[in-house]
Amino acid sequence: MQPLFREYLDFEGDFISYDDFNKNFRLKKVSSFNFAYDVVDRYGTEDPDRPALLWTDPEGDVVRYDFRRMMLDSNKAANYFKSLGIRKGDTVLVILKRHHEFWPVIIALHKIGAIAIPATHLLTAKDIRYRVQSAKVKAVICTEHTTCVADAVAEAAPDCPTLEHKILVRAEREGFLSYDRGFAAASDVWEKPTGADYPCNDDLMLVYFTSGTTGQPKMVAHNFYYPLGHIITSVYWQQVEDGGLHLTVSETGWAKSVWGKLYGQWLGGSCVFVYDFDKFKATEILSMIEKFKITTYCSPPTMYRFMLQEDFSGFDLSSLKHCSVAGEPLNPDIAAEWEKRTGIALREAFGQTELVATLATFPWMKVNPGSMGKPAPLFDVDLVDADGNSCPAGVTGEMVIRVHHGRPYGMFAGYYLNPEMTEEAFSGNLYHTKDLAWKDEWGYFWYVGRADDVIKSSGYRIGPFEVESAMLEHPAVLECAITGVPDPLRGQIVKATVVLKPGWEASDALIKELQDHVKHLTAPYKYPRKIEFVSELPKTISGKIRRFELRDKAKQES
Question: For a tag site, which of 268, 275, 364, 541 has the least CB within 10 Å?
Fold first, then answer.
């Protein structure tokens, strides 16, 4: 059986260039789509032995799912949830780390039509209270394994009147229902809903809370068409292979997980690999690639940096065919070293929780490390100035997506329960990403930063991304955040808040060395006139730097 993504393409054959791809790629306008039924159950019935999921953990336990098992286990989970009164349109918070139960659980919710809200196990009681109250959550499905998230759920529950069920996976605890016992007792025969109860198309399927880099998290809602947009993500950016094994390093609580551990991979015919670790260790990931013969791999640049600090001579990485990267600055030296050791170029992409892969370095394109690539054919991407005019090459503008012909597959349906915020985001028949970039003469896009993060100094507009990338190329710098701080002469000056690598010590000499280093890599006016060394940077629970905290601190100190 061929991968199912081909049935949703409105063309035949393969592409020979980016221009061909951009001009001719089309997805069919399907009359009905539900990933659980049209992909998981379709494989489970017609290609039941096809591998779906390969899971392991540091203890060496291995769990394998083919699509027959995934279909039947999701049926059992759906019957259990239905017995609890969970129905189409109910919101369910899912906090399952990298446990293999996540996959049948989310597929079961799709079968019912309940709205899944994946969340990280790092949430506090305050975080859970905010999410349950904001999304009117009916049930929480969580783990207790090596975390205190169940404690946080129990603490938050009395303040959450909509919360009817607390369901615990892999453990028994007073006040919680046992998922394991409920699942074991349920039938693996599922009665598919009909009529108005059948979930598909524009019905809401998924809500993600954004990471909240500038304030309270927003609730990003996706409908049942959303997985089809990830054909771009998986097949044409990550280049997953039919019969291959794909690893994206992400916990299931983040949107990046469904970018790399679910929808597009299965549509593309690839099995998903999951390593259920608690702390990232580069040698363990390298060992997993060798042991299980991973064919495609995706992670943020930081993880590539850590892996490149290891001796590759002890690992056989020959199974790798394609590698992709997104999420933070990619230093050219990291890209070059990875390609030198593996022979594989790192292909970058840009997207948001609200989108799928929107810009990427696709297979027919020259790799330019640091560039986000070119627009995916699903999206009419432009750069506009403050007046809404398109920016010429070399001029920084806000990335927007034109939606005058409607919202394409892969674009979010809106902010859940917040029509005012949705209307603002889509003003003027444009979706405003609030990310700034510029485009070169060959059509490649280069990230500058969030609109709120751009620094205005002596008439110059300076994006933190480029300066951070330059700083990270210095061997002393482990992490860096660039912000603007008030200055009576220049309006703002560039400040670098730096975490040093072990073995390096802060000094005036090192400050001068770092400043000179940036001057040689970027335009001299961009160098950080102020550098502060810290032990750690303020971050969201997803690991993104909270630059607004650094800016607020600087204002208070000025």
Answer: 364
Q: Residue 496 region, left (φ>0) first, then alpha (ψ -120 to 50), else beta?
A: beta
Strands 245-248 and 219-223: unpaired
What's the distance, Cα to Cα, between the start and end of the chain in Å?
65
What would the mean pLDDT of 228-234 be, rounded to a whole number? 98
Confidence of residue 462 (pLDDT cuts 50, 70, 90): confident
pLDDT in tens, 63-84: 999 999 999 999 999 999 999 9
For 179, phi and psi rounded to 5 degrees? -60, -45
Compute the distance between CA of residue 376 and CA of residue 359 in angstroms, rounded to an integer: 5
Alpha helices in 450-543 (DSSP H): 464-472, 508-521
The tens digit of pLDDT for each residue in 489-544 reads 888 899 999 999 999 999 999 999 999 999 988 888 899 999 999 999 987 665 66
CA distances from 36 to 223, 256, 268 (A): 13, 19, 15
d(CA 12, CA 378): 17
Q: CB of 263 within 8 A of CB of 35?
A: yes
For the cut 70, the answer to whether the pLDDT of residue 151 exceeds it is yes
The candidate with the shortest Cα–Cα distance to 221, out of 152, 118, 128, 144, is: 118
Cα→Cα distances 2→53, 210, 243, 269, 474, Å: 18, 35, 10, 8, 47
Between CA 499 and CA 504 the distance in angstroms is 10
- Contact indicator for 149, 123 with CB cutoff of 8 Å: yes
Output the pLDDT for position 540.
67
CA distances from 218 to 131, 140, 209, 415, 434 (A): 10, 19, 5, 7, 14
CA-based diameter of the chain, in Å? 72
Collapsed DSSP state (helix, strand, coil) of residue 410 = coil
From 390, 402, 399, 398, select the one nearest 426 (Cα to Cα).
Answer: 402
Query: For the chain, what is the radius of gyration of the CA atoms?
Result: 23
Q: What are phi and psi for residue 180, nearest 5 degrees? A: -60, -45
Instruction: Tell me what percent of the residues of the chain surpass a pLDDT of 70.
Output: 98
* Mean pLDDT within 313-317: 96
For residues 182 and 115, what is the distance between their CA atoms, to the nearest angstrom? Answer: 20
Tokens encoding 444? 């490649």
107 vs 45: CA distance, rounded Å: 15
Residue 538 has a pLDDT of 87
Q: What gap in Å lies between CA 349 and CA 444, rounded to an integer?
A: 11
What pairing do the DSSP bridges indicate for beta strands 430-439 and 445-450? antiparallel
By C-alpha distance, which of 358, 357, 356, 332 is closest to 345?
332
Residue type, 266: W
What's the confidence (pLDDT) of residue 409?
Answer: 96
Q: What is the C-alpha to C-alpha distance for residues 206 and 114, in angstroms, rounded to an integer? A: 8
